Structure prediction request, 428 residues.
Amino acid sequence: MATVAVVGSQWGDEGKGKVIDYLAARAEVVVRAQGGNNAGHTVVIGGKKYALQLVPSGVLTPGTVNLIGNGVVFDPAGFFAEIERFEADGVDTGSVFVSDRAHLVLPYHKELDRLIEESKGAQSLGTTKKGIGPCYTDKTARVGLRTCDMLRPDAFRGKLAARIDAANETIEKLYGGAPMDKAAMLEEYLAYAERLAPRIKDTGVMLSEAIRAGKKVLFEGAQGTMLDLDGGTYPYVTSSHPVAGGFAVGSGVGPTAIGEIIGIVKAYTTRVGAGPFVTELSDATGDLIRERGHEFGTVTGRPRRCGWFDGVVVRYSVRLNGTTGIALMLLDVLDAFDEIALCTHYSYQGEKIEHFPADLDILSACEPVYRKLKGWKRDITGCTTYESLPEEAKAYIAAVEEISGAPVKIVSVGPDRAQTIVREEILQ
Ligand code: GDP
Ligand code: IMO
Ligand code: MG
Prediction:
């Protein structure tokens, strides 16, 4: 089938943007199905860096149709700021459309995100404060506003006014915050409604027609499996479903529409925000990974927590997503190490744990059990074929395959489009 999903296999920031960009060059349609502008996908083309948050990464490939699906929470202010950045760079954004069923992230969602985080004190989740959780909360509470509401301005004004009143009550009474300016918000968002109208479409119909016509389609995942609301390290998760199953629900097609499922795996592990992380390295090795991998958040600039490859996480992710192939990213970051460790399983009170536990108290008490491999200690950023990689790097790739249970189809040795080794062509 001419469709492929790109899914984060760890805690996000695995390098999805780069693989999506690589595949977008041959895709005709790129679709986002979950999350919002909490995502930060970096694409480097010919040395120039682009940061994408809400706009699908296919926008950088002329001729691609880019769809923001119904499962995405859509922030009009963030969207237009991003669109303006692209246009200033000479990137055509005329092919970007948003589902008429996508829920709107409004300023009170961001304010509530901030207040809720603050009220949690030491138990805060470390969210991106983009209003993601409060927006999905309104969606599931069945009180949210959708982009289709914007198409009828008078009705939208009334609905938005009522939601601002309700949010202000929560902000003031529950969190002691200052109420938001209703008149200013109405004016601003009615203007966005007019500007957005030509881009609001039934993207599910566009997508299914493209698939029926045999077009090449790429489902662009945001976040990662361990941040999934059901499968992740709950409650230290995001509020969407960043797993392959979520892409069907969030794009308006059935699961059989997704052919290949590429799990994006960092050659080590990172996490931003709070929550247990078994292979975390709070020492000089962790610092060296952070420094070499430039592990600072695209959205918030926060330093990312770093650690060795966690095979329990990636094996779990292969199962939850039905991963058919892995793209192993940032392998070059490991160029500097004499010895590289991969966690094969955990040890909990002397017991061998091979499957990711649900209970975070148990997870926090798990110790990583490592297989240690010899490092290659060579610059691999210029390698363009699998054969040219050092034997030690090939052994590392083979260990990732064995531990996770999926074949490595792509190896990435640098941020640029050109620094990509393809072992098996995808979306031909
Ligand atoms: P995403 O959220 O999964 O798209 O990942 P991010 O863009 O947030 O973070 C990945 C970072 O790694 C970005 O800065 C990329 O430019 C960079 N990157 C991607 N692949 C490679 C690679 O193979 N090697 C190196 N050194 N950097 C890479
Ligand atoms: P990409 O697509 C890494 C994390 C936040 C926080 C948790 C909840 O770039 O991989 P939220 O704002 O979603 O309510 O925050 O999820 N998080 C991410 N971490 N990469 C992301 O996206 C993330 N999006 C959210 O740091 O721990
Ligand atoms: Mg990111």
Summary: The mean pLDDT is 96.
